[in-house]
Specification:
The chain is mostly helical. Helices cover 79% and strands 0% of the residues. 42% of the residues are buried.
């Protein structure tokens, strides 16, 4: 069985599981309403401050963060494999577990991209922030890069937490708050001391969000550079994820600690 075949089958399984959670009707009436309300809440803070600049800053930042929320749900997806006792089977298979898990939850990238883009477009209309058709395509690409980068980061975090129980939700929330705080969603990066800005440079969201802001300003070339940096960050986290899973699986095979009971 080729790696591409494994990736395709794993993705189909993950997508099927997602369809048991949402139909298009429940997605629109429940999930999308929820995320749109979240973005609108932060934009209204800018309105209360009486600042159109703050309104736009908070609206864009929190809309793009929705892509990261979808990606970070990978923590729960990875940990569920061990809790139901299937991780040992994955470790025994010829294909690397990280490849299977990354492909299985890749629908989260699509969901995060659609959620963030939809909320951004609707919220911009509601709050009178111009978003032209010529800006929409680069914005979608940048948001997809954010979702992909955050997904690699979340998959890595899920692997690191496989040896722990009942911490997935806490870890997901801590991870999201960290990204929301350090990546420029609500606070400009210039407000932080240099060490924190250095950390933000290697985290998902930072460069993709900066790119989206540049697109809104009409600076497409600078936005493309930020997009390339976001892609590089995402690739880095995926490489670390693969190496981490390799070490974990080898250790688990040696100690016999891969089943759900450990």
């Amino acid at each position: 069985m080729t790696v591409l075949h494994v990736i395709r089958r794993a993705f189909r399984i993950g997508a099927s599981e997602y369809r048991t959670i949402y139909t298009w009707k429940t997605w629109l009436s429940a999930w999308f309403v929820r995320v749109l309300a979240q973005v609108s809440f932060f934009a209204l803070l800018g309105k209360l401050l009486g600042s159109p600049e703050q309104t736009r800053f908070l609206l864009i930042g929190n809309a793009v963060m929705l892509a990261a929320i979808g990606g970070m749900f990978a923590i729960n997806m990875v940990s569920s494999e061990r809790s139901i006792g299937t991780f040992a089977l994955l470790a025994a298979s010829p294909t690397h577990p990280a490849i299977v898990l990354a492909a299985r939850g890749a629908y989260l990238i699509a969901d995060g991209t659609v959620s963030a883009t939809g909320a951004l477009v609707v919220a911009c209309r509601l709050f009178g922030i111009p978003l032209g058709w010529g800006q929409l395509l680069p914005v979608v690409v940048l948001i997809a890069l954010v979702a992909w980068s955050a997904y690699g980061f979340g998959t890595l975090a899920g692997g690191l937490l496989l040896g722990f129980r009942s911490v997935e939700t806490i870890a997901t929330n801590v991870g999201l708050v960290t990204l929301m705080t350090l990546c420029g969603a609500n606070v400009p990066l210039d407000a932080y001391p240099a060490p924190l800005r250095w950390v933000s440079e290697i985290l998902p969201v930072t460069h993709g969000l900066a790119g989206v802001r540049l697109v809104f300003d009409g600076q497409f070339a600078a936005a493309a550079i930020q997009g390339a940096q976001e892609a590089l960050v995402g690739a880095g986290w995926l490489v670390v994820c693969l190496l981490t899973f390799t070490r974990f699986v080898r250790r688990g095979r040696r100690l016999g600690t891969l089943d759900f009971a450990t």
